[in-house]
Specification:
It is a single chain. By secondary structure, the protein is an all-alpha fold. It has one domain. The longest helix has 20 residues. It is globular and about 40 Å long. The N and C termini lie far apart (28 Å).
Length: 94
């Protein structure tokens, strides 16, 4: 693992301590592929986590493909579910 990926993985672990490894790895992979100024990395972690949740843990893609919703409509439809997953991942493990 590169130094950049290791740093990003540590940041994701800090910001989202309950994020499962599979999703954490995907967030890190996407972050590493998208250059971001260090000052914006915290925000980027959250936005990338939202994207991973939206595409992998909700019906977002199906809503667009099978139900013809626009991106904005599908995002609105899954927004609450995305927020719930993100809140779950943010809470420190007990």
């Amino acid at each position: 693992m590169s130094a950049t990926r290791a740093r990003l993985a540590a940041l994701v672990r800090i910001r989202l301590p309950r994020c499962p490894g599979l999703y954490r790895d995907e967030i890190v992979r996407r972050l590493a592929a998208t250059p971001c100024p260090p000052a914006l990395e915290h925000k980027a972690v959250e936005e990338m986590a939202r994207a991973v949740i939206r595409h992998q843990l909700t019906d977002y893609d199906r809503l667009m493909q099978k139900h013809g919703l626009t991106r904005d409509e599908a995002r609105i439809a899954v927004e609450e579910e995305v927020a719930e997953w993100l809140a779950e991942w943010r809470h420190a493990a007990m």
